[in-house]
Design a protein that fits this description.
Oligomer: single chain
Distance between the termini: 20 Å
Structural class: mainly alpha
Shape: elongated
Largest sheet: 2 strands, antiparallel
Strand content: under 5%
Order of helices and strands: HEEHH
Strand order of the largest sheet: 1-2
Radius of gyration: 17 Å
Number of strands: 2
């Protein structure tokens, strides 16, 4: 027996997951930075700037949204999206 879930429910749950993942990554960033496990002198980008919270948030949100879009495509075009996605 298959039960369909409305897209709005998937979008709401996806937004919650993205928010929770972002908060966890921000907390981890500051905790690791305070514990001196992240070296602020190691640069990122073309100018070797010190890592800040912005790339952490950006990468979390960007790749989570991409994952959500892939899951939505699987829901639309697959009969078993959860199994395929995992």
């Amino acid at each position: 027996m298959s039960t369909s879930v409305p897209f709005s429910k998937i979008l709401i749950e996806g937004a919650k997951a993205i928010g929770i993942a972002t908060v966890i990554n921000v907390v981890l960033f500051f905790a690791l930075f305070a514990a001196k496990l992240i070296d602020p002198h190691v640069g990122i980008g073309p100018n070797h700037e010190a890592i800040t919270i912005v790339p952490v948030i950006f990468s979390t949100v960007l790749f989570s949204v991409i994952g959500l879009l892939i899951f939505l495509a699987l829901v639309r075009f697959s009969s078993n999206p959860v199994k395929i996605f995992t």
